[in-house]
Structure formats: structure tokens, C-alpha cells
Design brief:
Number of helices: 5
Shape: elongated
Number of strands: 0
Strand content: under 5%
Structural class: mainly alpha
Radius of gyration: 16 Å
Oligomer: single chain
Distance between the termini: 29 Å
Helix content: over 70%
Length: about 90
């Protein structure tokens, strides 16, 4: 449970501690960070940490972002696999 909460908590702390950096990373548009926190929290956290004002994200930063997407998707898959024995998922 903590592993799923950590990236969301990290994004929230950065949002509170450095709101200017956070809004600059997303251009002041709040829909993308909210969707990122819900669906791709680790990728959103890394995106905000790698963002450089005036420069954006460099090639190495995009490499790290591409590595974090499978981590987030793997979290969805592992959750489904772990819950496969619950009553609602059993085949009759």
C-alpha cells in the first residue's frame, strides 16, 4: 500500500513546497497534473523533478520518463494479478 501512495505523496509535497516549479512544469494547466497523479503518479513525480525552467526536459530526462511509464503500468498489472483470487474475480 505504501508503494502506491509514495509517488502521489511526493507529487503533493512538491506541489506544496514549490508551487511555481510545479505550475511551470505543466504550464499552469491543472488537468494534466491531476490526471498524472491519478493514473501515472511515478511518471508525474519524475517529470516534475526533471523539469528545468527555461529548458524543459533534455534527452536523458525523456529516457528516464520512458522508463517510469512501464513501472506505473506494471503497478496496475501487479494489482490485478494480486487480486485474482478475490471472490469477484473468480470464474464460475
Amino acid at each position: 500500500m505504501f508503494a502506491g501512495l509514495f509517488p502521489r505523496l511526493g507529487v503533493f509535497v512538491i506541489w506544496l513546497a514549490r508551487p511555481v516549479l510545479f505550475t511551470a512544469a505543466f504550464g499552469g494547466f491543472l488537468l494534466w497534473p491531476i490526471l498524472g497523479i491519478i493514473f501515472l503518479p511515478f511518471t508525474t513525480l519524475i517529470y516534475v523533478l526533471l523539469w528545468t525552467p527555461g529548458i524543459g526536459i533534455g534527452p536523458l530526462g525523456w529516457f528516464w520518463l520512458l522508463l517510469t511509464v512501464p513501472i506505473d503500468i506494471g503497478g496496475w498489472g501487479s494489482t490485478g494479478y494480486a487480486n485474482r483470487n478475490l471472490y469477484a474475480y473468480r470464474r464460475r
